[in-house]
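Input/output pair, single chain:
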Amino acid sequence: MEVNTRMPNAKVLSEKQAIVAELTEKIQKAQAGVIVDYKGITVEEDTALRRECRESGIDYAVVKNTLLRFAFNNTGLSELDGLLNGTTSLALCDSDVVSPARVMSNYAKKLNDKFEIKGGFMEGKPVDLATIQSLAAIPALPVLQAQFLGTMLAPITGLAVVLKQIAEKNGEPAAAEEAAPAEEAAPAPAAE
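Output:
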């Protein structure tokens, strides 16, 4: 039996180098990334996942372990090499640290054994599964903004309620109610 010791042809090698360069650039730009083992998900599940990723601004792709290993080594994330076995996909986001962890964790819960988070990175540093799960527990940015706004408006709303109660207690609305029946009791002008 003869072992093939030839190098891949120049075209294939060039294509792979281009993929590694693109992956390296995406990883360097990303605020956070999550590595997932996606074995056995259906087309419908994958389509729904990809749709949610697009809506959340996440770049999600299935990646060959060897190519991802080169990209991780190029970006100083070689500690993640041990996670690159089996079927691997990568979720990256360059605008939000939390969204890849949240979306991937939601799908890991929905799909049980078919979808498993292996690990990830945040701001150029490897993070473990526990960190990813902690990030996933943080609400989405619009929810956080609404909570913050509600907290900011609570004292003003409370003040408005108190002022209304004081005004009602002092009879100001009652005076307005008494004025209305007096107008009704006034004689109507005579028609000519």
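The chain has seven helices and five strands. The longest helix spans residues 141-169.
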